[in-house]
From TrEMBL:
Name of the featured protein: Xanthine permease
Topology of the protein relative to the lipid bilayer: Multi-pass membrane protein
Organism placement in taxonomy: Archaea, Methanobacteriati, Methanobacteriota, Stenosarchaea group, Halobacteria
Transmembrane segment boundaries: 21-44, 56-76, 106-126, 138-156, 168-190, 197-220, 240-257, 321-342, 348-369
InterPro entries the UniProt entry points to: NCS2, Xan_ur_permease
Originating organism: Halocalculus aciditolerans
GO MF term list: xanthine transmembrane transporter activity
GO CC terms: plasma membrane
């Protein structure tokens, strides 16, 4: 193992024993299923959908998250990265989907996704070999860092019981999240073998049992859910309007940046950045499966940062484990009753796990930067300005209230602000990671992956 690598228990193409693989796959599902489905619940609530339509959208989100995850692991032609990238619906799209859904209707939301998913991310993926020099580890690492940091407030809201919950901040919620965090960290730090690899799942399981014991788990949605439901193409219709299309085009650019960052976080376990082919296939999956899913009523799918954190936390990089997780998600998407059962996990239990994963994501981004970029004056300025502005709009969004609404929507995204700031400063400032100055066009990949002297 080199200085640039963490301990990898299972490599990219290795297959853990079947039972262990299933448990590791379930761990990935447990970490991402609540935030993935939360997007559907939030948008459905904002638009005022019926319970039946809400359940259907949740079902489609799970189904296409699973299909996209399997495609990332095994590929279909040029689509897919052959990397352990878990896919799901990102909070990046919540605000736009809710606002456009209210003002234009869901038909306009799904019409915009259908057009921009494949067009924007497909184009980025197709030309990524030319674009990649503009996204060296300094930039992609900053995207990973801000994704992790941006998840922390959301995780803390879950720890407290969920925004709007009657028991928000109650002692039992804090204790449940603390129990999950303590079990997960304790097993990872002080045990070895299967208990270390399954530390996060064990933490969630212990927290869930404790939640059932104190009587805060509601099983009524499980009894009311159907066993099986068939996807219906065009259920919400399609409309095409300029403003929604432009808005989602910007958001898919953000999604591409997130995916580049998450893929870099995953491969950082091996002390490297992804190859051109891996980036291209991963971005094709983001765009193509998002457009395909919109036909059936699913919101856009993108890589999930929490699961990149799981990989760095456990050292299990096997794409076969992630494919099993994708299979579970697809099954959940076809069976609303099973999905309803998983969704009974209390927010506080989930929050304890996500708080840990968010921190691991941010730490993996910092590691990616320190391994591949000198912390000299130039790069420290880029780090400081990019993170300062990104965290600034995240913590004080009202500071942008004087801007037009469209500008508030765009520049109110911490990932957008951090990524664009880092991209512009890194490109325009002379240095070893700038594509306009010292980068060697014939050796871009190697200079992006290895540190050099400034």
């Amino acid at each position: 193992m080199s200085d640039g690598e963490i301990h990898v228990a299972y490599g990219l193409d290795e297959k853990p024993p079947l039972v262990k693989s299933i448990l590791l796959g379930l761990q990935h599902v447990a970490v991402m299923i609540v935030p993935a489905t939360a997007v559907a619940y939030i948008v459905a609530g904002a638009v005022g959908l019926s319970a039946a339509n809400t359940a259907y959208i949740v079902q489609m989100v799970l189904l296409f998250s699973g299909l996209a995850t399997v495609v990332q692991a095994y590929t279909v032609g040029p689509v897919g990265a052959k990397l352990p990238v878990v896919m799901g619906t990102s909070f990046t799209f919540v605000g736009a989907a809710s606002t456009i859904g209210v003002n234009y209707g869901l038909a306009a939301v799904f019409g915009a996704i259908l057009v921009t998913g494949l067009l924007v991310e497909g184009l980025i993926g197709w030309q990524f070999e030319r674009i990649q020099p503009y996204f060296p580890p300094l930039v992609t690492g900053l995207v990973v860092v801000i994704i992790g940091l941006y998840l922390i407030p959301s995780a803390m809201n879950n720890v407290a019981g969920g925004v709007g919950a009657e028991d928000y901040g109650a002692l039992h919620n804090i204790l449940l999240a603390t129990l999950v965090l303590a079990v997960s960290v304790g097993l990872n730090m002080f045990t070895s073998g299967v208990t270390r690899l399954l530390a996060t799942l064990a933490g969630i399981a212990v927290g869930y049992v404790a939640a059932v014991a104190i009587g805060i788990v509601n099983f009524a949605p499980v009894a009311n859910a159907a066993w099986f439901a068939v996807p219906v193409p065009g259920r919400f219709g399609f409309e095409f309007h300029p403003v929604p299309i432009v808005t989602f085009a910007f958001l898919f650019l953000v999604s591409a940046m997130e995916t580049v960052g998450d893929m870099s976080s995953v491969t950082s376990a091996e002390g490297r950045t992804p190859t051109h082919e891996e980036f291209r296939g991963g971005l094709f999956t983001d765009g193509g499966l998002s457009s395909l899913g919109s036909i059936f009523g699913a919101f856009p799918v993108t890589s999930f940062s929490q699961n990149a954190g799981v990989i760095n936390f456990t050292g299990v990089m096997s794409r076969h484990v992630v494919a099993i997780a994708g299979g579970f998600l697809a099954v959940l998407g076809l069976s609303p009753k099973v999905g309803a059962a998983v969704a009974t996990i209390p927010d506080a239990v989930f929050g304890g796990a996500v708080l840990l994963m968010a921190g691991m994501v941010a730490a993996s981004g910092a590691r990616l930067i320190t391994l591949n970029a000198d912390l000299n004056r130039r790069n420290m300025v880029i780090l400081g300005v990019s993170l300062g502005l990104g965290l600034g709009v995240a913590t004080t969004p009202e500071a942008l209230s004087g801007l037009p609404q469209a500008a508030q929507t765009f520049f109110g995204q911490p990932v957008v602000v951090t990524a664009l700031t880092a991209l512009l400063l890194n490109t325009l400032t002379p240095g070893d990671q700038s594509p306009l100055f010292d980068a060697d066009d014939d050796d871009t990949a190697s200079t992006a992956a290895a540190p050099t002297d400034d």
